[in-house]
What does this fold into?
Amino acid sequence: LLIVLLPLIGAILCGLIGRYSKDLRNWLATCLTFTIFMLAAALYPAVSRGTAVFSSPTFLGMGLNFRVDFLGFVFAVFISFIWFLVTLYSTDTMRDEKAGTRYFVFLLFTLSGCLGVFLTADFFSLFLCFEAMTVFSYVLVVHSQTDEAIAAGRIYLYMGIFGGLCLLSAMLLLQNTTGTLDIVPNLDALAGMGSLSYVIAFLFFLGFGIKAAAVPLHIWIPRAYEVSPTLINAISSAAMLKAGAYGLIRVFNMLLTPHDGHSPLWEITGNLGYALLWIGIATMATGAVLAITQSNVKRVLAYSSVSQMGYIMTGIGAAAYLGYEGAIGFAGSSFHILNHAFFKAAMFLMIGAIYLRVREADYAKLGGLWRSFPVTAVAFMVAGAAISGVPGFNGYASKTLLHHSIVEAIAHHGSTSIWFAEKIFVLTSGLTFCYILRMFSSVFMGPYSSDRKLRGETWLERAVFSVFALIILTGGILPGKVIQLVITPMAAILPFDAHAVAHLADINVWNVHDFTGIAISLAIGAFIFIFLSSKKFQFYLPKWLSVEQSVFRPVLTFILFAFASTGRLVDMASIGIISGSVGPLGSIARNAGELDEVVLPSAGGSVLNSLSLLRDKLYVFTVEKVREMQGYVRTAEHSVFTTMMNLDYNPYGEQLYRKLTLMNVDLCIFIVIVTLVAAFCIWFVKTIGL
Amino acid sequence: MPLASVLIPFTFAVLIVLAARGKESMVKILAVGGTFFTLLCVMTMLPYLLTGRVLQPGTSTMSFPLPVSFGADSLSIFLALIFAFSYLMATIYSLGYIAHSHARSRYYALLLVTEGSMVGVVMSTSLVGLFLFFEIMAIAAYLLVIHEEDDKAMSAGALFLYTAIGGGLAIFFGLAVTYYLTGRLDFSPGGYMTASPLAAYALYAYLFGFGVKAGMFPVHIWLPEAHPAAPAPFSAILSGCSIKVGVYGLIRIMHDVYGVDVIRALLFDRVLLGIAIVTILLGSALALQQDHLKRRLAYSSIAQIGYVLLGISLLTERAMFGALFHIFSHALMKGALFLCAGAIITQTGKKHISEMKGIGYQMPVVMLSFTLASVTMVGIPPFNAFISKWHLALASLEAGQGALVLILMVSSLLNALYYFPVVINAFLSGGEPQSNKLIRDQLPAGMIWTTALMALLCLGFAFIQPYWPVLVTNRIASLYF
It folds into this structure.
C-alpha cells in the first residue's frame, strides 16, 4: 500500500538530500509525513464502505497482505497525525544536531514499519512490519551514541528481537494448527488442541507485551527513554507502544475468540482475559509506584508510560474476560490508546523543549520555568490533567470507560479478585495524579534555580503544543461524540455482541457516580502528594525489587555463561578427541617404525650372516675336498708313474706297451685314465676305512 | 552442457597456467572469463531446472575403470548455479584482493580448478565421478587455504588436508561397500541399497566423509582454522559453496542411493537430526566467544550448516525445501559477510572485532552490506533466510518435533547476539570524533560492488515478483517426496 511504501522511498530520498541541504531535507520529511497523514485519512471512504485490500500473494512465497479495517484505520490516522506533529517539531530542534539526516531517515523508516503494523491483514505481514519497526527504531534510540545509549539500546534491540522470535514461534504454531495466519476469530480451530491456545496466547503476549511494556518485560523502557532524544520518546510512547497494544487487541480480542457469539469456548478467552487483566493491573501499579520514586523527568514519564500501558492492557483483558459482551473494555482501552498517544506525546515534547534549553532532567535542578515557558506550562497542565483523569479532559472519559468495564466484570462474574483489581485501579489513578502534581510543581513552579538567561519558547513550539492541548480538550469535552464516531465502528470490527456495541454510544460519562469515583482517586493522589512532599520524596525502593536486577540479569548471565562454556567444552572435546586420536595413532606408527628400524634390520642381518656363513662353509668344504682329491691324484700319479716306469723296464711291460700301442691309445690319455682309476680306488679304499 | 560446464573451468585453468609467464592482465581476463563462461553455461541449463527434466549424459563418458559421466537434474543445476555465481563474484573480488599478493597466477588457476571440480561433483551422474571430483576439490582447496604460506596457514592447511583425506577414505570405503553389495554406483531416485549391517557401516562412513566437508559437529574442527587462514574470497567460497558440496553428497546418498525407507530403517535420520542440533547450538555458542571476525563467521557457518542438516534429516518435502533454500540464502549472506571481512582487512588491516570501532564511517558501503547480511542471518523478514527458517520450523512442527522450533529460535537470537555487536561497533560506538567523518571506501571498485551485490541479493529477491528462488526450490523439493 502506498502509505507504507511512501515513507520508505521518502526516507531514502531524505538521506540523499540531507547530504546537501538540511532545510530541504526537513521540509521534505515534514511534507511526507503530512502527505501520509492525508493519505491515511483519505482511506476513510474505502474503510467506511468495508475494507480496503492490497495484497501481493507471491511476496517471499508467503504473500504480503494489507487490509485496512476501521480499527487499523483509526490507529493509522491518529499515529500518522502525531508523527506529523513530531516531525514538524523536530525540523526545528534537530536542525543543528549531529547526524540529523540519519534521524530523519530512520524516523521515516520507523513510521513505515509502524503504519504497516496497523494496516496489515495477516500475522506474517504484521510481523514483518513489527520487526522492521524494532530494528529501525533501534537506531533512533541510540541516537546520541554515548556509551549509556548503546548499553540501553542493546537491551532494547535484544528484547525486541526476542519478542519478535516469540511472535514468530506463535505464528508457526498458529500456521501449523489452523493453516492460516489471517487475523480472524479462530479459537474454534485452536481449541481442539488442548492447552495449545494458551501456549500461543502466551507467546503472543511475550512478543507484543515486550513492545507494550507489560510488567515483567518493561525493563527496556526506563533505560531506553532516559538516553534517547525526547522526540523519540514521544514517538515511541505514542506510537510504538501502541503497536504492541494493537497486537494484543488483535490477538486477545480477535484471534483467540470463537466464531459464534454463544460458543462455550468464550471461557478460554475469558481465562486469557483474566490473566491479561491482572498483568495490566500489575503493570499500572508498578509503573505508577516507580514513577513516584524517580526524580529524573524522563524516567518519570517513562514509568508513567508503563503505567498507562497497564490501563490499556487492563481494558483489553477486561474485554476478553467479559467475552462476547466485552465491547466496553475494548472501547475503554482503544479510547485510552488514542488519548494517551496525544497527552504523552505532548508531555514528552514539552519536556524535550525544556531539556533542550536547560540541559537538566533532574527535579532538583529544575523549577520556576513557567516564566520562560508560559504556553508550555498551560499545555502541560492540560496534558497532566488529562493523564490523571480530571473530568473535562480526555483521560477522564477513557478511564471512566475502563472503570466501567472492571465494574461490569465484577458484576458479570461475581469474582472477588476483580474487586481488588478495581481498588488497585482507583489507587493507581491517585498515584498518577500524585506524580503528575509533583512533576508539574517541581518543573514549572517554585523558585528558579539557575541564573542563566533562557531562550523562550518558539512560535512553532507554541503552535504544536496548543494543537495538542486543543485535541485533548476536545476529546475531554465531547467524549460521546468521539465514541460514536470512532470507537463504535472500531468495536464493530471485532467479534462483540452487536447489542453491546450499540450500547456503547449511549454511555454517558457525565454522571455523579463516575465523578465521585474519580474524585476519590484525585483525593487519594493529592493526599499522597502532600504526605510525600513533607518527606521530600526521600525514599527508595530496595534494589532487589527491580525485576531486571533480581531476575533477568542473573538468569541470563547464567544461561549465556553455561551455554557458552558448554559449547567451548564440547568443541574442545571434539578437537581433543580427533586431534588426540592422532597421538595414539602416531605412537602406533612410531612403534611400527621402531620395529622396522630395529627388529627387521637385525633379522635381515642375521639371515644374511647365516647365509654368508653357509656360503663360506660350503667354500671351505669344497676347497678341502678339492685339495684332498688333489693329494690323492698326486699320490696316484706318482705311483702310476713309477709303476709304469717299472713296467717299461720289465718284459711284461714291454708286451703290455706293445699291446697298448696296438690298441693305439695315446700314452698320455692312458696315464690319465689309469691315474683317475687309481685315485678313485685310493679314495674308495680310504672312505671305506680300510 | 553439463560436460561443458565442468570442462570450461579446467580449460581456463590450463590456459592461465600457460599464460602465467605472459602479462598479468591476460591472467585476470582468463580468470574472470572462465568463471563468467561457466556461469553462462550453467544458465543455459535453467530451462531444465524449471521444467524439472533430467539432462541426460549422452556420449560424454570418460573411460575410467568405472565410467564417469555427466548429467544434470534440477538439484545439480540449482547448486551449480549458486556455485558459478559465487565464483564469479569471488573472482572479480579477488582481482582487487590479491592484487599485491604473491603467486597470483597459481591462485587464479587453482580457483578455477576448484570451481571445475565443484561443478563436476554436482554434475556427475554416479558416485565415481562424484568421488573423483570431490578429491580433486579437496587437494586444490588445500593449496588455496595455504595461499598465504605463513606458519598459521600451513598448520591450518595441514589440518584441512588430513581431515579431507580422512573423509575421502571414508567415502571410498562406502563406495567399495556399495559396489560390492549392489554392483552399481549410479544414482537412481528411490535408491537401490537394502538395509543390512554392512550397508549401515557404509552409510555412516558416507556420513563421516561428507560430514567432514560439510563441517558437521564432531568433524568440524578444520573449519574454524581454515576459514581465517584462507584468502577472504576463498573463505567466502569455502563457506558458501564448498561445505554445501558435502550436504549435496549426503542428499544424493540418502535419496538416490539408499532411499528414504532404508534411511529410516537404519535410524540414520535420527542420528543426523541429533548431530544437526548439536551442530547448530555448538556453532552459535562458539561464534559468540570469538573476537576474530573471520573465526566468528566460520563458527557461524557451522551453525548454519546445522540448519541445512536438520532440514535434510527430517525427510519431508517442506524440510527439504527449507534446507535447499537455506543453502541458497546462506551462500549469499555468508559470502557477503566474508567478502566484507576481507575488505576490512584490506583497507584497515583489522582482524578483531574489538578493533573495529567506528569503522562504518571509513567504509560505509562495505559495512552497510555487512549490516544487511547480518540482519539476514538473524532471519528477519523479508530477508532470504527468514523463509528457510520459517519453513524449517514449520516442517519440524509438522514432524511433531516442537522442541526444534525452540532451538531454531534460540539460535536466531544468538545470531543477533553475535552479529549485531559488530554492526553497532562499526557505526555507533565511534572512537574519536574526527574519525567519524563519512568517507568513501578506499578499495578497488570490484571489491565493493561484488560485496554490495551479494548483500543486496539477500534482500533483493523479495522485491522481484514472482519470487522465483522459492518456486524453483519448491519444485526441486517436490521431486524428492
Q: What stands out?
A: Chain B touches chain A through 45 residues (CB under 8 Å). The longest strand of chain B covers residues 61-62.
